[in-house]
Amino acid sequence: MTVSERTQSIEEKILSPYAALSKNTLGRDVPEEECELRTPYQRDRDRILHCKSFRRLKHKTQVFLSPEGDHYRTRLTHTLEVSQIARTIARALLLNEDLTEAISLGHDLGHTPFGHAGERALNQLYPLGFRHYEQSVRIVEKVEKDGAGLNLTKEVRDGILCHTTGTEAKTLEGRVVRLSDRIAYINHDIDDAERAGILHENDVPAEISSILGCRRAQRIDTLVHSVAENSQNGTIRMDPDIQAAFDKLYDFMYEHVYLNPFAKAEEKKVPYLIGTLYQHLKSPENLPEDMNRIAEQDGIERAACDYIAGMTDHFAIQLFQNIFVPKSWNI
Questions:
Q1: Which of 37, 69, 157, 289 is the most exposed place for a label (fewest CB within 10 A)?
Q2: Mean pLDDT, rounded, for 73-91
């Protein structure tokens, strides 16, 4: 028995009947010889962790555009927090922790520079529309490894695609990631907003904090415990009162942070910057050589969209400056 077969045997013995067993995966688009050490979902996790798109998340905006300070979240730290929360829930519910981790690490690979402001800008520009969760799947299927993609299992790709609003993931692991994503970003966005002086510790209404807790760690603990204690029979859920308080917390954040004019002051510059880059890159002579394959297969606009979506905040700003901002003569 190989190590991976032993792991699959353990999965079958200890995991919930509702868990996605790695031996039952629907597989990959391109069949591969199985690894003797790692199950299919473990291999997917490793492929995501080592890909270029994952590394670039460290310089992509979460909420605040390129904030000055070392302790604000980036898209990468957000991803790691989602993974931690999701794995805790998966382990408590005896679900497949490896599948949960793979989906968590890959769920935001397709996010644009400048957060959702960049996503909205590309959605207006690209004729077929742009949604980051679809782009995340496109990256692992068609963009990474010079077009070969990562050849991930169908369960991981489904979880990535369905990690936000709309259709639910086919696996409970994917549904856990979807909920964990929301738990993570609402709570760490409060933390960042307090650091930025937009919120103060006592601003969260008492009707919410009395149920969920006053501090980030307390709120996350309450929410995770509620999911672990109330999910059953193949359904992921919280206690109704805690769910109601969590929904109110989201509404509070939307009003006071996500639409806050101070927090979002710089976002009004994003459509112009991305739009100008997009129009420039739509000309074949301006598109980087390594994007020509995509342009030939899917069109120049798709290539421009993919290129911009993959940029970090810093790279997009620097590229804009290099192309459109005059430099001083060296005399």
A1: 289
A2: 96
